[in-house]
Every structure is written in structure tokens, then in C-alpha cells.
Amino acid sequence: ACAVATPPPPPPAQSDAARAGERGNGRDLVVLGVETSCDDTCVAILKSRRRNRDDWDLVGENENDKVEVLANQLASQFGIHAEYGGIVPRLAVRAHQDNLPQVLEKAFEEASMTWQNIDAIAVTRGPGLSPCLWAGLSTCCDAAQQYEIPLIDINHLEAHALMPRLTQGPQTLRFPFLTLICSGGHTMLMLVRGVRQYEVLGTTLDDAVGETFDKVARALRVEGHEGHLGAGLERLAAEGCAERGPAFRVPMENYGDTCNFSFSGLKSAATRAVKALEKRAQGGTLDSASADIAAAFQATAVKHLTRGTRRALAFLGHRVSRSAPRNIVRNFDRDVERRPATLRHELPSALVLSGGVASNEFLRAEMRKLASYFEDDLRLHHPPAALCTDNGVMVAYAALEILSDKRWLDDFARRDPTELQADPQWRFLD
Ligand code: KG4
Ligand code: ZN
């Protein structure tokens, strides 16, 4: 087991008078977001306008520009774990401990603020790696106590799910919407009915899609791009041709009555194909066939994701346009027949991609195509790449969405921050 992070001592406290003068000016709500659930140390500061102290007038009302990102800082651990087969918790927690004070300082500098300006601290409490979660949580807990700032615990998946409401504007992206969260740790189809109102329609039965991209990328000796192996694999795939690569089977084709996913079989098939290629190369460099394997793998993984999403849309009662390609209409009709009787019709207003893998251009293009086959002008939304992967903005934003309901605010103000515990398996979504 890994040691729990010991937080660095927070900066010295200021007098009550100084605190009262600067924080809570009655118009703005400033939230600091901290994310340390995995291998990136992220801090952001967001500002939202409110009318007065009792009326936290936040997102969801009128304008899209009510929320401002004042700071967005991140320290990547990509280089630290690169030589290992995955994230090493022992090293990750140490890096979070080392980096968090600096990342916080940079964020305060970028926003020209101090702890005195912060109205609420939002921190990821789960799911994630336990020691990593504690690194962020303990630091935030100390600051919350010392400066008497409410501490808001955020679910990492909820943060990914709500993030596109900030980038698209809450007026454009209205509840309910269907989100595919595809990240290093999760692959989940979720109907987002509102803040803290989620229904999971499908999830992975084994590996997550991002984890699978990472494993196959490692086998292919791909270098990371923008701090991610998956992005490196996407670049290699762009040089190859899926049809020339191995004919991988799309997973779970005969499990038509669920929207679940499975990636372990595809992962094994792809790594086997790489091994066979290596054997042929006899220890030399992998030739252009490696790009074809990457392309074929990516195409199959994306097909699996789009088919599950199509099924979820069919189950929810969305109608496919009769002018869509014949095979799409046929498969859609088959999906409709297999719809679980317990699921009621509930039309999502949009289709949303979020999580690290949502920065993949090929996935976006295929999902956009899928959305275009549906009636009622179904649109695809996703955050820009830098906000698809883990970041502090999504954590602070989730808190703003939660605080827009005053009941939650009262609830958080009454809570004792020291009672918060990291929850590596936090499952409040299903
Ligand atoms: O959301 P995220 O930053 O962390 C988790 O919550 O897990 O997602 C990281 C995952 C990694 O597996 C990374 O390789 C993958 O997202 N990823 C990509 C791309 N960019 C990041 N996978 C495929 N294509 C990309 N362009
Ligand atoms: Zn994530």
C-alpha cells in the first residue's frame, strides 16, 4: 500500500478583517478546483457572477459567458511513468505532493488571487487512485479549515459529464443529454437528466477504452503526444490504412440487448498482431504495417463505441432518419426490437463525448456521422481536447453547477471538511 500524502503547510492565515473584506463581494462566486485522481496535478480557478449573497445566480439562467476561467494549470506526470507499464501509484502520489503547491501557486498567480478570494474549494474525492485522491483532498481540507472556505467534494465522472455544459454553454447543451464518457479509467454511456441526476445505460465489462489505447500504443512502441499514449496512437493510425490491417472483430456484436462495452478481447487481438509483426521484423524497426494495425485497432474500437451509442439512442426512443444508409436503418430497427421493456422513452437533446479519448478526431468524426443519421437535428458536442483530458476546470465547474441549487450550498456550508474521505470506487452514478 502507498503512504497517504502529507499535505504541505498552507500559507499563513490572514486576519478575519482582511478575509471578510476580500471574499464574498456579493457579486461573484470564485471556485478553486483541484484534481489529483490519476497522474495529472490540476488546479483551476473559475468565476461566476451572482446577484447577491443569498442568490447564487449561476449557470443555466441566461448568458453563456457567466462563467470565466481565471486560471487553468496542470503538471503532467507523463514523463515519470513513461518507462513503466502504467501509472505507478507510489511515484504518482509523490509527484502530486511535490507539484501541488507549485501548481496552486501558479494558478493563484494567473488569476491574480490568493486563498482570500476563494469562495469554495472543489476537489475530486473519487473515483481514482486512493493515495492520489488523498494528496489533493488533504491539501484542500487543510486550506478549507484554515480559511473557513466550504469544501465541495466532486465525483470525477460527474466532472467529465458536466464539462461540456461550460464549453458549449448551458443554453446550447440542455438536459437531458446522452454522454459517452471515454477515458483511461471509464467507458460509460450515461443519460444526464440534470445535476446529480444520472442514469447509466452502459459501461465496460472489463477494460476502459483509454486504457486499451494505451496498452496497444505501448505494444506498438508509440511515443506519447500531448502527454498521452492514446493521442500518439491516433497519429500513427492516421498514417495507416484500417483495411490493410488485421480484420479485428467488433466486440459484443451478439449482445444486442445492452449498451455495454468490452475491450479486453480487442486489446489481446491487437497486441497479438503486433507480436506477430515483431516476429517478422526480427527485432528491427516495425514497418508501415504497424500503422495499419493502429488504424485497424482504432477503427474497431470506435465502431464498438458508435454501435453502443446507436443502441442507447434507439433504446431512449430517438428516431433514425429514413434517409440514413440502409445498413444503419436496418441495425437501428433491430436495436429497437431489443429495447428493454423497463426503459422508458426519454429523448436526449444532444449527444456528448467527454473524457480523454473524446479528444480523438476519428472518434469525433464517426460520432458526428452517427448523430447526423438521427432526426430532430441531433448534434454532437465535446469539449476542446485540452478539456477532454483531466483538468481542474471541470472540477470547479461541476461545483458551480452543484452550487446553482441553493440547497446544496447550504448543505456544504454546514459540513465539516475533515470528515471527507477519499472514495476510490465512488459509484453514486449507478
Ligand atoms: O480523462 P483522462 O485524462 O483520464 C482519466 O480519467 O482516465 O483520459 C486519459 C486517457 C488515456 O488513456 C489517454 O491515452 C487517452 O485518454 N487519450 C486518447 C487521446 N488523447 C488521450 N485516446 C485516444 N486518442 C486520443 N487522441
Ligand atoms: Zn478523467
Automatic annotation (TrEMBL):
The keyword Oxidoreductase does not apply. Residues 1-22 are annotated as: Disordered. Residues 1-13 have a biased composition (Pro residues). Residues 68-397 form the Gcp-like domain. The keyword Transferase applies. It catalyses: L-threonylcarbamoyladenylate + adenosine(37) in tRNA = N(6)-L-threonylcarbamoyladenosine(37) in tRNA + AMP + H(+). Pfam families: TsaD (PF00814). Its EC number is 2.3.1.234. PANTHER family: TRNA N6-ADENOSINE THREONYLCARBAMOYLTRANSFERASE, TRNA N6-ADENOSINE THREONYLCARBAMOYLTRANSFERASE, MITOCHONDRIAL. NCBIfam families: gcp_kae1 (TIGR00329). This is N(6)-L-threonylcarbamoyladenine synthase. It comes from Durusdinium trenchii.
